[in-house]
Amino acid sequence: MHADVVIIGSGVGGSAVAYQLAGTGAKVLVIERGEHLPREMQNWDAEAVFGQLRYRTRDTWVNGQDQRYRPGQYYFVGGHTKFFGAAMFRFREADFEELRHEEGVSPAWPISYRELEPYYEQAESLFGVRGAAGQDPTEPHRAHDYTHGPIPDEPVIARLREKLRDQGLHPFFMPASVDFGNGGKCVRCGTCDAFPCRIDAKGDAEICLLRPAVKKGGVSLLTGAKVTRLLTDATGKRICSAIAETRNETIEITADTFVLSAGAINSATLLLASANKNYPKGLANSSDAVGRFYMNHNCTAVLGIDPRSVNETRFPKTLSLNDFYFGGKHDSWPLGNIQMLGKIRAPMLRGALPWVPSKFLDYLSRHSIDLYAMSEDLPSPDSRVEVTSWGQIKLTWRRTNLKPHMRLVDRTKQLLKQAGYPLVVSRRFGDDTPSHQCGTVRFGNDPKSAPLDPFCKAYDHDNLYVVDASFFPSSAAVNPALTVAAQALRVGEHLGRMLACGNLSVPRVGGG
Ligand SMILES: Cc1cc2nc3c(=O)[nH]c(=O)nc-3n(C[C@H](O)[C@H](O)[C@H](O)COP(=O)(O)OP(=O)(O)OC[C@H]3O[C@@H](n4cnc5c(N)ncnc54)[C@H](O)[C@@H]3O)c2cc1C
User: Fold this and answer.
1) Any idea where the Glucose-methanol-choline oxidoreductase N-terminal domain is (predicted)?
2) Residue 382 burial by CB count (10 A; 0-12/13-18/19+): exposed, middle or buried?
3) CATH number for the domain running over 2-500
């Protein structure tokens, strides 16, 4: 098999590059290890999704203590967005600059917010993001308002919004990529966050990027093919082929350009597993940063329980709060973002509280309003992805910044109590949930400390790009998908320009 451009992984990053290259005349092949997610009744069944872990990978990883576990990782066409909560935030301008935190420094990005702004706008348009500009006190500059108005609150959330305003806070409508409103597909099914959408109403990478790319032309998709190794040419400067395992055979795919987008943990794994005699530490890794600086937000669910009323909300994710994002008058240090969680159901609580009787969990979930407190995790070289000698993923996560995170959780609890919820409980998300994984193949201006340049090209190789959340030098404290999409659209446009001037079609040289 040969393509002009091979893209490994059909998540946000890979599909955004495919979208930009579609219709340019380039032959693009997207290789995806998963299959299309089946449309079935279980998509919306909390017991199937959380009780039986129906869609979670069966692979096991090991943690920093060498304990095996089954991670909250999903492999399907469209990647993690098939399960995401559709919150589509731009990072703040200051997130692109060096920012001091209580427990260290969040480093500057090699590009500014201004450079990414047009691609944020393109990404919002492709994902049909709904929102309202001018309400979020930390909102970055926007050239234009959202094309679609926000998803309206249901009564319980509208009441909470009022109560937060009464406390002098500035709740805003959360930007979300859900096809809601007149003629829209969303039926407020009552699931959404962490569930697949059975009716394609959630704007995910498959629906918003990959399908339109295939339709535009030049893009084809190979599913059920897990890339296990990248081979370089004799000079080591170019990637010449990808080796992939399908259900029946091992195949080799050659290309002029390789775009790696297998997700932050799998992209690093693949680069490390592709070590050869020229690159004993792994491909793209002369900086020794590949696999290091793994980040994942510090996230805690905070539930306000009101025994006097049942929360009938179907789609709660309409409200968010950034009053504590940079600390401001409330704290000397950045604390992070607060947003609504998808509606909690009893099977979701069972994993965290296995000793609590099901009836009580059911009671809690019917009477709770569910918030999500999220704080930045800072990059540390000791938080890392490695490959064990028997080929398993080893993920060591040394969380940072927990003190400010706990203060954010305390604030969230206080504001729920003040809003009239007599009982407030919280639970931190576990280390086995790498939902906001990023940072493992970071971009930067200095090849000594970063594997990728500002266009996400590997410094060590002329034809290798990495465009999933691996490239983040810092994690900020809002959800990552829109930023992955924006940078991948920028890289895809850049590749398209290079193709147009013939700079990408270099003759292939024999393998090594
Ligand atoms: C439950 C959940 C809720 C979330 N909610 C939100 C939210 O509301 N807002 C937000 O912004 N973000 C959210 N996120 C995070 C968001 O989904 C991710 O940041 C984003 O999807 C990452 O995109 P990516 O392209 O980096 O990687 P991925 O989406 O992980 O895509 C990688 C792709 O590569 C494939 N792949 C992996 N290894 C290989 C291989 N070796 N060969 C071939 N293919 C391979 C995978 O199957 C996958 O399709 C959520 C995540 C989860 C899990």
Assistant:
1) 76-278
2) exposed
3) 3.50.50.60
